[in-house]
Amino acid sequence: MNVRMTIATTRRVLEQLRHDHRSVALILVVPALLLAAVYFLFENETLPPGFPRTFDRVGLMMLAIFPFVVMFLVTSITMLRERTSGTLERLLTTPIHKADLLFGYALAFSIMASLQSLVATAVAYWIFNLDIKGSPGFVVMIAVINAVLGVALGLLCSAFARTEFQAVQFMPVVVVPQILLCGLFVARDDMNQVLEAISGVLPLTFSVDALKEIAGNAEATAALWQDTLIMGGIVVGVLVLASLTLRRQTR
Length: 251
Prior knowledge:
The chain is an all-alpha fold. The protein has helices spanning 3-18, 21-28, 30-41, 54-84, 87-91, 98-127, 136-158, 164-181, 193-199, 203-216, 222-245.
């Protein structure tokens, strides 16, 4: 992989995003608005004194899930446009390698994901008073990794789509099962054996487990770092797989 080519690709993608106000709004604003909707869903709940708010549990998980979903959608459609417009084919006639292109895209959207996570986390803590034991810095770290995971899966799935509509159709296949089985709605121990086994290999499960460690512990735990390393390894693996399946154009 050529670092100079990767950085050049990153700069090109960021420059394109700078002029695409709708995508910027989708990345930076929409997760915060969705988080606000989650807060107001539970605003009027009645709880015994000292009992933790539902928002403190659900809102924390949404800080990772919303970036994952948004970045998957934006990335898959953006890469598909590059291919259908012929931009990708022209780029690959230059000395740039597929890996340089993919990792350049991943880096550019990772920067946007970092900004997205900072905005959403700031809203959760400063406006909605999210109350957990762990540090906000660890929450941002997991949210960013989750967003990058969305980028990696979006890049991979875009290789198998011919239209933007087909790219969106991958969401029920790739994104929704992970949200359902990650342990957010039902504890994994309460699932049947088949679903529990499937959930144990889904990337989003590790991010939810990591957030639970952050919520329950003031200091970083070994389980938190283990989940973080696994998620990082999955991201790299998916990006490598995406570079192998990347096609020059869609006919």
